[in-house]
Amino acid sequence: MTSESVLETLQAFMAERDWEQFHTPENLSKSVAIEAGELLECFQWGADGDRERVADELADVLTYALLLADRLDLDPEQIVRSKLERTARKYPVDKAKGRSTKYDRL
Amino acid sequence: MTSESVLETLQAFMAERDWEQFHTPENLSKSVAIEAGELLECFQWGADGDRERVADELADVLTYALLLADRLDLDPEQIVRSKLERTARKYPVDKAKGRSTKYDRL
Amino acid sequence: MTSESVLETLQAFMAERDWEQFHTPENLSKSVAIEAGELLECFQWGADGDRERVADELADVLTYALLLADRLDLDPEQIVRSKLERTARKYPVDKAKGRSTKYDRL
Amino acid sequence: MTSESVLETLQAFMAERDWEQFHTPENLSKSVAIEAGELLECFQWGADGDRERVADELADVLTYALLLADRLDLDPEQIVRSKLERTARKYPVDKAKGRSTKYDRL
């Protein structure tokens, strides 16, 4: 098993094909939305999606998301943790527990 | 700094608020698409998006994507690598280099 | 040429195939988002989309949007006009002319 | 009640604010996807969306869809009818009745 990170593998893949030129932040954001639509299509008519198909589309969403983070010098783990801290303040446990209500209506 | 993984932090956050009940694969896929739309909004009228706002929305996309992977017992890194291998076969370097053309038209 | 409205033609098409059962408001909203992603794919790597392909995907977005309006007894023309009136108040001409800025920053 | 069509009202609204400059086909497609995400948000955690909020977001989807059709000299009604004819061939009644299966698996 390689000790190369997923990001390094992605970067090498894109460089090899000279594809970085297409990876503007805007194009990558469009790509995340496009793949998110394909992921959603697994559940178009109901709650049961085929696990393999979901894995395939989710991989595409994650791929473009990681490329976008890299393009803007963002650390995926760090921005998720940061956001979680902000979310914790908007949804204190005592008010939000067991409720899907948006924070401005808690 | 904690040695707790991002996923463990997310799981604890959701359990604390008793939110797992809302996290069906379908609802999580809808959430990925919703946040992907908010990410795209950073570039609605042009190519320059505010980096902080993009980081915020990208964090939301990644959060729901990680929760969905977890819900279906999928390893995010492994499914991205798997997909990359399949993509390499659809886009061999000699044919695809420097071109954004879809594989069925290479 | 028929004097049947587009909506009547859509309704007949769906009834003939016994498809109304799948057309819950939620499923139709998912469908609008899915097709919107396919429309966006026409512009994934740049500003020039193939007109025929755009027409095809836009037709799908419109189809599901019209079905959703019908399902909720909404008149498409009337809700667009209503929303435009509200938008006019958020974006008075003297403040908004020539600017793509969101209303809370005018 | 005005005899001005919805499109004419939209065109006047946009011209008055000098907004046509932002309405490239690409920007309008991004906008359709963005609003489709907001529409989907009405159903993020379940099947029941607030009818007024759905009407508001659906109006936004329709608005951008109509502007995009106009920008590319496409007649919304005609492209929906055209697409329906093609869909009828992919989903003949005898094979597709009562089934949500995609055409390549009928």
From TrEMBL, chains A, B, C, D:
GO function terms (MF aspect): hydrolase activity
Gene3D superfamilies, per the entry: MazG-like
Pfam families (alphabetical): MazG-like
The name this protein goes by in its record: NTP pyrophosphatase (Non-canonical NTP hydrolase)
Keywords: Hydrolase
UniProt keyword annotation of S-adenosyl-L-methionine present: no
Domain of life: Bacteria
